[in-house]
Amino acid sequence: MSPGVSVVIPVRNEAPYIARNLEAVLAQDYPPECLEILVADGNVAAAAEALRVEQDRYRLGAGTLLDLLTAQANLTEAQVTQVQARYDYLNARAQLEALVGHSL
Question: Measuring CA to CA, which residue among 40, 4, 43 is closest to residue 21?
Answer without folding.
Answer: 40
